[in-house]
Amino acid sequence: MSSRFRAFLFDAGGIFVLPDPTEVAPLLAYYGGALDLGAHVRAHYAGMAVKSHGGHAERDWSAYNIAYVQAVGVPADAETRAAEVLGRTRNAWLWRWPIADSVETLRTLHKREVPIGVVSNASGQIEQVLRDSAVCQVGEGPGVPVRVVVDSDVVGVAKPDPAIFDFALPYFEGIAPSEIAYVGDSLVMDVVGARAAGLHPILLDPFDDHPGADFERITALSHLL
Fold first, then answer.
1. CA dihedral defined by 36, 25, 67, 200, rounded to 10 degrees?
2. Is the pLDDT of residue 3 over 80?
């Protein structure tokens, strides 16, 4: 697939990092949730699918929280309490657990000299978190070098507003937006925003939560290779 595009931009949450399940799992175990980390990986994408299908705004995570606790097996009589605790505990700095396949794919794209960058709805922290988690950074560091990391809180505009991509595109001079794929995990924020900016949207949908979609989907970032 990489030969179809001259560059890639990526979301951060759900693409390279997830809410740290080593912290969230014990938190929800109190309410009967599973401790298995794989269940919490699944829960994130289940939550994102419900959030997307409901057309919820970026800052509305209520449906996500309910879907998440349901996915990890919290009993029905504890769902509301568990979801509230999850919502109050899952802060921006907790989006730090690296997705190994995605990080390795990013490294391979870098080795192939494919231009890459990150555009994320975040809270001013994502560039530092990606560095600390050894995912990526601008220039040299513990992770994969990328051209740019755009944080919506820093630039003052958030997806699905296509203007957020204006802060990244100058780093891809000579490459038309239509030749850049944008990979995210949200229909409302990522697919809609990328389309409006003239980029080619690709949804990371590892559990086939969007059957029959009219946009391109992959089940793992390694499929980009």
1. -80
2. no
